[in-house]
Design a protein that fits this description.
Layout lengths: L6 E6 L11 H4 L4 H14 L3 E6 L3 H14 L2 E5 L8 H10 L3 E5 L21 E4 L4 H13 L6
Helix pairs in contact: 3-4
The protein binds 1,3,4-trihydroxy-5-OXO-cyclohexanecarboxylic acid.
Length: 152
């Protein structure tokens, strides 16, 4: 069977399992389950197939990235706080070598200074931040274009 090159892995990092317990003024109060369902529906509209992964373990996140080229054609990544300091995760994403978009629910540029740094700088096609769940839709559209599934 030939692959359609439409598989997107959606990776959430540390503290996303408790998304609905985090500050609703910043993160919107929705659960990861609800967020993933929305992402899955948007992906289907774009002709993309999604798989979802979340862990609070940096090592597990790295190991998932090691397996990624066998599982997926592209990645949508919100690594949470690891975004700002985990060079190990950045190295693993680099090795995976897939088109990737970095997403953040909150506007990381307008929060604390330390959130402005991203270890994924230069490794991802784009960084989408501060748009809430809609940012994932934008990220999926960027990946659909990168995979040749959409115009523009
Ligand atoms: C986040 C922003 C990060 O700075 C923070 O550590 C998170 C969530 C976001 O989606 O806005 O855990 O990635």
């Amino acid at each position: 069977m030939t692959s359609a090159h439409n598989r997107v892995a959606v990776l959430h990092g540390v503290n996303f399992d408790i998304l609905d317990r985090r500050d609703p003024a910043i993160y919107g109060g929705l659960s990861l389950d609800v967020l993933e369902r929305r992402i899955g529906a948007w992906a289907r509209e774009l002709g993309l197939e999604t798989t979802f992964f979340q862990t609070n373990s940096e090592g597990e996140f790295v190991e998932f990235l090691h397996r990624l080229p066998d599982l997926s054609d592209a990645a949508l990544v919100n690594a949470g706080a690891w975004t700002h300091y985990s060079r190990a995760i950045a190295d693993a994403l680099d090795v995976a070598g897939l088109p990737a978009v970095e997403v953040h629910l909150s506007d990381v540029e307008s929060r604390e200074e330390w959130r402005r740094l991203s270890v994924f700088d230069g490794l991802v096609l784009e960084k989408v931040s501060g748009k809430g769940p809609e940012g994932y839709r934008e990220g999926l559209a960027i990946l659909a274009r990168a995979l040749g599934l959409a115009d523009g």
